[in-house]
Amino acid sequence: MDGLLVKPKNKEAIPFLKQLLNNLSNVQSVEIVKPTNSRTRKNLESGLKEVKDMVAGKKKGKTLKQLLDED
């Protein structure tokens, strides 16, 4: 099923919009989500890509000693 993302202009509008949407008969559910930190997400995605490359043999991993010796 398709979804709908509504971005209020300010935080104070969230309770009103949530109540309004919950009272509509065509709305199945309303969920408040917080945006993720894009920098954190990018770092995680980069790390996962590195791990996939290592598992696929495209990239060589470091030993624990090498990681601990890094400054």
Verbal overview:
It is a single chain. The mean pLDDT is 88. It is elongated, with a radius of gyration of 22 Å. The chain has 71 residues and is mostly helical. It is 48% helix and 0% strand. It contains 3 helices and no strands.
The DSSP helix count reads 3
Shape category: elongated
The fraction of residues in strands falls at under 5%
Classify the secondary structure makeup into a structural class: mainly alpha
Oligomer: single chain
Average pLDDT for all residues: 88
**The biggest beta sheet, please?**
none
CA-CA gap between termini: 49 Å
Low-confidence stretches are none
Helix content: 40-55%
Number of strands: 0
Order of helices and strands: HHH
**How many whole angstroms does the radius of gyration measure?**
22 Å
Question: What's the structural blueprint in terms of helices and strands?
Answer:
Layout: H1 13-22, H2 38-55, H3 64-69
